[in-house]
Amino acid sequence: MADRQLFLLNREAGAHRIPDDARELDAAIRAGEESLRRAPYYLARFGERGQRFTRSDSAWLATLADTDQGHVDQQVEWLGSVLSARGMPRLLLEQHLEVLADTLAAAVPERAVAYEKLRRAGARLRARRVAALADEDLAALAGRFDALTGEEWARPLPGIGALLVAAVIDEARGTERAVSSLVDWVGDRNLFSARWVAAVEETVRAARAQVHRR
Q: What sign results for the dihedral spanned by CA atoms 124, 180, 209, 158?
């Protein structure tokens, strides 16, 4: 039954575990939808295919609660590296794990303690990110990006400045294509204005200077 459910979720994702409990599966899918809502970049860039992978990834992540914390951390780090190299900085996974843990705990409260493993894995991602660049510095750089681009793009496609800075952090941690895979789209002159592209380039330069200086 689980294999058939996974196939319906996303046949492109291949065969991996999904929750057997229908409540968990539904909660994982809803958590994915919430993460898509909070980060419009996902759908703007990846469309329906991205939505399918969000569902299947979220369902798989939910199954990690059945394993020990070390395994959860290892698998989350692996997924974060894969996603970052494809244009989705670890910051997005960090945020999704928080949403996922909350949604699962609300749906299946008797397993709330197990779901805390997902929250702790997200906190571990955050700790590594903050060690490279403090939250207030990331926020300042992201705010500068919004000021440079203006409301024309910042309002319909929010959060890009923070993603650019987060990608630089991932790059500093060893993910070679973390920045280029993001900039391939957000810096595309065929999609965005010259003002926007200039802000992308300036934000990457400024973030690299700050991250490397630390």
A: negative
**What is the separation, in whole angstroms, between the first and last Cα of the chain?**
50
Residue 92 half-sphere exposure, CB side, CA atoms within 13 Å? Answer: 32
- C-alpha distances in angstroms, 205 versus 65, 134, 155, 181? 39, 17, 23, 16
Question: Rounded CA gap, 127 and 174, in Å?
Answer: 16
Q: What are phi and psi of 133, to 5 degrees?
A: -160, 125
- Please list, in sequence order, all residues whose beta carbon lies within 8 angstroms of the beta carbon of residue 166, skipping any fewer than 6 positions away: 89, 90, 91, 92, 129, 138
Report yes or no: 114 and 168 within 8 Å, Cβ to Cβ.
no
CATH 1.10.490 is right for the domain spanning 2-132:
yes
The pLDDT value given to residue 3:
45
pLDDT tens for residues 37-59?
Answer: 999 999 999 999 989 989 999 99
Alpha helices for 112-159 (secondary structure H)? 112-132, 135-149, 151-154
pTM: 0.91
d(CA 92, CA 12): 21
Tens of pLDDT along 167-201? Answer: 999 999 999 999 999 999 999 999 999 999 999 99
| Alpha-carbon dihedral 106, 108, 111, 116, rounded to 10 degrees | -30
**CA-CA distance, 214 to 207, in Å (whole number)?**
11
Report the pLDDT value the prediction gives residue 151, as an integer from 0 to 100.
74
